[in-house]
Amino acid sequence: MGTIKCIGILTSGGDAPGMNAAIRAVTRTAFYNGWRVKGIMRGYKGLITGEINEFRSESVSNIIQRGGTILKTARCAEFKTPEGRRAAYENMRAAEIDALVVIGGDGTITGARAFAEEFDVPIVGLPGTIDNDLSGTDSTIGYDTALNTITDAVDKLRDTATSHERLFFVEVMGHTAGYLALNGAIATGAEAAIIPEAETGDDQLKTLIDNGFRKSKNSAIVLVAENPVTGGAMGLAKRVEEEFPQYDARVTILGHLQRGGSPTAADRILASRLGAAAIEALKEGQRNVMVGVRNGETVYVPFTQALSHTKCVRSSNIELVKILSI
């Protein structure tokens, strides 16, 4: 492709607080540089069906504080096929879009990588996922807000757990990563965090009951990442029922509650920085990269690296939960 004159922007996969702030930043920065912007509705699905709208500056007014995404989002099985991607490319060219900015998580970046490999399309990705599981960036858009939502919910559960002398398993999102569960446990003073990265999930539970809950506490809260490795909150509660029937175990699954709400200041700032940086990346001729932040600085991360799943939770934080739960 030649000189960029018009960009398309879309959000895909699960929504995350701060996506609107990112849309706003991308749009306004593009206008600042004299480029046109077209909003693509419902992610890759909208690119295939041609749901593409011309944006103006006012299109992104009064959205920085809103959760969700004004562009809507959807998962699209058709985009996983060569025929679907071909249709998307033809609609993109018909709309005179020269480059794409895509906002989303693992699935979104995977789709962008496949699209870029097949067609000569400059694409820049922004990490929009509450799971914080994309490699190459210290934080993802929506993670801080979700962590604050979890903290607020667990604080409320602590009141009833203490009053009724119960063991609460609180299941949070994080199918492949335990960031929300682990850091949520630290933030709330939970007795344990059972995460997929820790291979001793069952031992953590036994240690909690033998050395903590049994000896010095009349209630406990355990944060659990939703993952087959951990067994999830329901699986752990069933194990308590079978092995430790003397304890009253209850389950709270926060579910999609974690995706909602107005983004925190941290997420608004992160999204704004990364959104502006996406346009700068395209101006510099970057393509097939995700914009992230490391040690406070914006960085360009190749799609392959972003999807490598090499990001790890801090082992010191796992130990910290144990230390502080005595």
Task: Walk me through the structure.
The protein is of the alpha/beta class and 326 residues long. The chain folds into 2 domains: 181 residues, Rossmann fold; 117 residues, 3-Layer(aba) Sandwich (Rossmann fold). It is 43% helix and 17% strand. It contains 11 helices and 11 strands. The strands form 2 sheets. The chain has a 7-stranded mixed sheet with strand order 3-2-1-4-5-10-11, sandwiched between helices. The chain has a 4-stranded parallel sheet with strand order 7-8-6-9. Helix 7 links the parallel strand 7 and strand 8. Helix 1 runs parallel beside helix 9, helix 2 crosses helix 3 and helix 5 crosses helix 6. The longest helix has 22 residues. It is elongated and about 70 Å long. The N and C termini lie far apart (61 Å). The mean pLDDT is 91.
Straight-line N-to-C gap: 61 Å
Could you name the CATH topology of the largest domain? Rossmann fold
Counting helices, strands and paired strands, the structural category is alpha/beta
Number of domains: 2
Based on the model shown, name its key terms.
alpha/beta; Rossmann fold; 11 strands; elongated; four-stranded parallel beta sheet; 326 residues; 2 domains
Q: Could you give the topology of this structure?
A:
Elements: E1 6-11, H1 19-32, E2 36-40, H2 43-49, E3 52-54, H3 82-94, E4 99-104, H4 106-118, E5 123-127, H5 143-164, E6 167-172, H6 179-188, E7 192-194, H7 201-216, E8 220-225, H8 232-243, E9 249-253, H9 265-283, E10 289-294, E11 297-302, H10 303-306, H11 315-324
Parallel strand pairs: 1-2, 1-4, 4-5, 5-10, 6-8, 6-9, 7-8
Antiparallel strand pairs: 2-3, 10-11
Helix pairs in contact: 1-9, 2-3, 5-6, 6-11
